[in-house]
Design a protein that fits this description.
The structure is a homotrimer. Chain A is of the alpha/beta class. Chain A has one domain: 2-Layer Sandwich (Macrophage Migration Inhibitory Factor). In chain A, strand 1, helix 1 and strand 2 form a beta-alpha-beta unit. Strand 6 of chain B pairs antiparallel with strand 5 of chain C.
Chain lengths: 131, 131, 131
């Protein structure tokens, strides 16, 4: 169920792919999603027609290796699970791609069980009686 | 008010356009938005600089015809309306573009009336007294 | 903390950049974020491989100068602050880029303090005891 968007500057296919694996493996390990529960859009921005802008909040030196990771998931994960997720994403992004943890930003947006249809026009987590 | 992002792999303009019409017509029919309430970003990913990754959760065989549909809308739609929306999107995506229902993923993110400004710097659903 | 996505049709780098500055300056002025709290993805759509579609809701004449601005931020801003934000974005987008206010759509999605990791695998707003 998590839907993930990953944005990076001038990344090649191999780097995008490895970033995607880092995030997915971290999700499986820390919040227990099934391995097949993988839905990602990964975009390399060229710096001309599409840009990434960044500052130094909260006192972090970033550079163009920056990665933005946006995860939409149903509500209900505990703060501890979320902290474990952030830590593991940063570790695996470094391990799989060499991206330094200072360059990894992650944020979550939550919705509810009724807000997902994985296929076939069905609300899988909250089906109607006759589905 | 719904804001819609549609992502597809190597789609041409005609397919993107038809997918957009499928989602919009389904929104108009099932949750009653005005026909002019249309705000979409539609992206064809080339598979090199921008990618889509997918698994088989929850036991669905997907392929590169996959479409991700992300809809942001104000809170308050009932579960039945949301189910009707998913069903109709899958039907119309198939009817307009031949996309098989197994390849159509939809998810919703809700916000509130104050969270929308359609134009002119005004919060249309929750204006100030002097707007 | 706000994470911002800006979408525009056939914009050059200078226009994208100026739109980004308009949104960021408005955020700093109206909701008091630190100047270094800047995280944006800005995309120019070519109209062929990536599209923007729009209607006239709620009785607004738009054209291809249209800009979509999506802002994710933690919950808790008052309605008045949000109204001030919309107004200032429209003003500065016009001032910096000539974009007419009728062509500026803004929407907000809120999450919580625990939902942000700015870097280093840490939940900066809700750290664990030992972080």
């Amino acid at each position: 169920m998590p839907f993930v968007r990953i944005d990076a500057l001038r990344a090649d296919t191999a780097r995008l792919d490895a970033l995607g694996r880092a995030v997915h493996d971290a999700l499986v390990e820390t919040i227990g999603i099934p391995p097949g529960d993988l839905f990602q859009v990964l975009t390399a921005h060229d710096g001309t027609h599409s840009l990434m802008r960044y500052g130094d909040f909260p006192d972090t030196r970033r550079d163009d290796d920056l990665v933005y990771i946006s995860i939409t998931l149903r509500s209900g994960r505990t703060p501890d699970r979320k902290r474990a997720l952030y830590r593991r994403i940063a570790e695996l992004a470094h391990s799989y791609t060499g991206t330094e943890p200072r360059n990894v930003l992650v944020f979550l947006t939550e919705n509810e069980l009724i807000d997902w249809s994985f296929s076939d026009g069905v609300a899988h987590y909250a089906p109607a009686q006759d589905d």
